[in-house]
Amino acid sequence: MEYHHKKLLTIVCEAVLEERLSRDVRRLGAHGHTVTDARGGGLHGSKHGTWSFDRNIRVEVICDDAVADAIASHVAERYARDYGLVLYVSDVGVMRPERF
User: Shortest CA distance to 21 belongs to which of 33, 36, 8, 37?
Assistant: First the structure.
């Protein structure tokens, strides 16, 4: 099977950013995104998601390199200083590249 190169941009952040990030990723060129609830722990303690202010989400965007760079730069500049977030990029192969 033939796969086509794309980037998977993953942002794990405070749930309060969901609406803003949804608008941002579309405005910056992504065709779509997926949001899921996220829980875990790290240097700053644990996130259990039992209260609305304590929730984290994972936003995943499959896109071209340039779009991933634009979104990552925007998120780092706009949100990283004031919100807890982790951002990483992975190489992925997709079957229907026109959808991304």
Answer: 33
> Is residue 100 situated within a structural domain?
no
Residue 62 tokens read as 């499959």
Per-residue pLDDT, averaged over 12-21, amounts to 96
Geometric angle at alpha carbon 67, from 23 and 29, rounded to 5°: 40
Q: In the block, which residue shows the tokens 């579309």?
A: 26
The pLDDT value recorded for residue 52 is 53
Residue-wise DSSP of 16-41: GGHHHHHHHHHHTT-S--EEEEE-EE
Domain of residue 58: give its range. 4-95
